[in-house]
Design brief:
The chain is α/β, with parallel strands linked by helices. The protein has a single domain, classed as Alkaline Phosphatase, subunit A (3-Layer(aba) Sandwich), CATH 3.40.720.10. The protein has ten helices and eight strands. The chain has an eight-stranded mixed beta sheet with strand order 1-3-8-7-2-6-4-5, with helices on both faces. It is globular. The protein binds zinc ion.
Length: 248
Amino acid sequence: MMAAPDDPFRSLVDIAPTIAELLGIPLPGADGAAIPELTDRLQRCDRVVLVIVDSLGYFTYQRLQPYMPHIQGTVIRCRAVADHTTPAIASILTGCHPDTHRTFITADVCTSPIKSILELAEERGIKSAVVIESEGAEAMKTKIDLVAGVDDSSDMLTYDAAIKERTINLLKHEPVLMAVHFRAIDRYAHEARSFDELAYAAERIDSHISEICRHLNRNTCVIVCGDHPIHGTCIEDDQDVALIVLDR
Ligand SMILES: [Zn+2]
């Protein structure tokens, strides 16, 4: 489904085409299109780190921004493509809507007819990396070389800290394209935690991203996005998803 020409919003399926254009990776059959204001702004970038912050809806980002001082830059409002994490992340990484990529649960990763931008990069000899939950990581290991997994945990703050540590470790291999996934905001929303606890989870993720950025050179662009609007009632009426290209 293409956006109407007068649609002021972009979509999550536009992220992979944007990265593809920046890094020169062919992305045949994508439903989305590169976002011109980003490809223009990011011309000097030759590496990309894509940070997916689970449940970073557009209004959620607006509410949590005071607690995320490092997640600032060009902010773009994107339409969501799914309510749930797995199909949404598959859309972010393929540039296709769920009806096209058919990845609804982790097991589908192995059977989806559509390749992610990470796999397409590898096929072109462009080193790519991913740091995600262990089950998803196992599925990706058949497709790309640099994969690190973190076991699911009842303590999401510890989980996210481990994601950060693995990310910094994999950066030693100098991937050109890297995707990582932080989850504490989403988990806290599902647990119906207070706004203060949600803000604390946001602060921790902000500090992880800041630490990751200290390991990147100037020509690496950092793109932060949500996967779907937040669930639960902690932040009312969250609509659409935030996409932020960091000022660095
Ligand atoms: Zn999610």
